[in-house]
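Backbone description:
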Amino acid sequence: MKINLFYLFVLITFKFGISQTGEVTNHIYEGNKKAKTEAYVEAEKSYRKAISLAPEKPEALYNLGNTHFLDEKYDEASQRFFQSQKFAKTKESKHRAFHNMGNVYMQKKEYQNAVEAYKNALRNDPSDEETRYNYALAKELLEKDKPPEEQEQDQDKKDQEKKEDQNEKEEDKGNQDQKNEDQKNDGDDGEESNKENEPKNEGDQKKDKNKDQKQEKPEDKKQMPRQGQLSPQQVQSLLDAMNNQEEKVQDKINAKKLKGVPIKGEKDW
């Protein structure tokens, strides 16, 4: 009976893979037991054996990073956590790696890096309250860690932004008040225009007619004489002169009646 060599190769490789995976798991398990007893050097050896067999095994990298952190080897710890999040298959694994990376930076007082690490952790798990607390604490420490000059500049910047916001609000309020005033004036003008265009009632029409008649009375204004006609004043003067002449004639008649015969030789001027 002939054996298919390709099938045999696959079978052997598959069995070897199962055996290797089991060995990696065993090394991680041994490393965890030693880490609990604070035997960090022995734990590190076990994790490194697992990584030598599976360099991209995120669990081995993550646990080795925790061992470095507990042993206060912060530079090595941050490197392992970075590798762990890089090869992580789930958001949960990425969240844990970034969270612990932030803790490393907090120990090193690199608050800017800590803020970024916690921010990345929250992107993968926004519900984690511990990460959120650490993120807020890192931001506060970062603000306090700035030199006095930078703190003063930041405060001046905040004050300027606050002032600009206040000025913008006041300007918007002024524009709104002016707009309301313009609308009010437009409304008043419209009412006056409507009143002027409204039809007058009978009483108002009578008042306007009497007013027009009163204005047209001759005695209220002097009439200018037309060319070739006498003015009223000239006519009145002629009437007065005629009356005076008539009175003189009447006086003469009355005198003759009294004397009877006129005297000759006297000139009648």
Summary: The chain has ten helices and no strands. Residues 1-18, 216-225, 256-269 have pLDDT under 50 and may be disordered. Residues 148-197 form the longest helix (50 residues).
